[in-house]
Amino acid sequence: MKQLFFLMLLPFMLKAQTPAESKSKETEETAIEKSESGGGDIKKEAREKLEAIRQRVLNGESMSVLATLYTQDPGSVKTGGLYMNVVRGQFVPEFEAAAFNLTPGGLSEIFETQFGFHFVQVVARRGDVIDVRHILIVPK
Questions:
Q1: Residue 119 forms beta bridges with which residues?
Q2: What is the model's pTM?
Q3: How many Cα neighbours within 13 Å face the side chain of 39?
Q4: Residue 15 in domain
Q5: Which phi-psi region, left, alpha or beta, contains residue 105 (left: φ > 0; alpha: ψ -120 to 50)?
Q6: pLDDT digits (tens, 9 = 90+) for 60-104
Q7: Has residue 63 been placed in a domain?
Q8: Are 136 and 71 in contact (CB under 8 A)?
Q9: In terms of DSSP bridges, do strands 116-126 and 129-137 run parallel, antiparallel, or are they unpaired?
Q10: Does the structure show a pLDDT above 70 at 19?
């Protein structure tokens, strides 16, 4: 009964939209539709942005600085993309496959996970424990 009452009130609770708000909503809906339909363009843009950042690392720029500026990972942005004392089983399989196959200083290719696009750099290895720095770009 409460749900029915809410549905009856819903049209009265919605705010009338100005033309600019309507246009903004259409743009947002288009972005959502692209995202839901695979978002090829959105994914392509995210991957290209990350490739440009990766190239800067390959050209000698500090990955720590670039991670602080560009990563969209809230868990590592304040540490320049660094996760320390990582063991297998802590991260998603794609991340671990890239990270644990590198030697210290090595830089992975770009890979995709459920969170977005990443590349990683192993900072140190102590047996089965690594310190890894990464940059994440989320398709939006």
A1: 135
A2: 0.71
A3: 16
A4: no
A5: left
A6: 999 999 999 999 999 999 999 999 999 999 999 999 999 999 999
A7: yes
A8: yes
A9: antiparallel
A10: no
Domains in the chain, number:
1
pLDDT tens readout for residues 112-131: 999 999 999 999 999 999 99
| DSSP-derived pairing of the beta strands 116-126 and 111-113 | antiparallel
Is the model's pLDDT at 4 over the cut of 70? no
**What is the crossing angle of helices 63-70 and 40-58, to 10°?**
150
The answer to whether residue 8 sits within a structural domain is: no
The CATH number linked to 71 is 3.10.50.40
Q: Is residue 6 part of a domain?
A: no
Query: Mean pLDDT, the chain, as a whole number?
Result: 81
From residue 109, give the alpha-carbon distance in Å to each of 3, 4, 117, 131.
Answer: 50, 53, 10, 17
Residues β-bridged to residue 107: 121
pLDDT beyond 80 at 44: yes
Torsions phi, psi for 8 (to 5 deg): -70, -35
Alpha helices, H only, the chain: 2-13, 19-36, 40-58, 63-70, 93-100
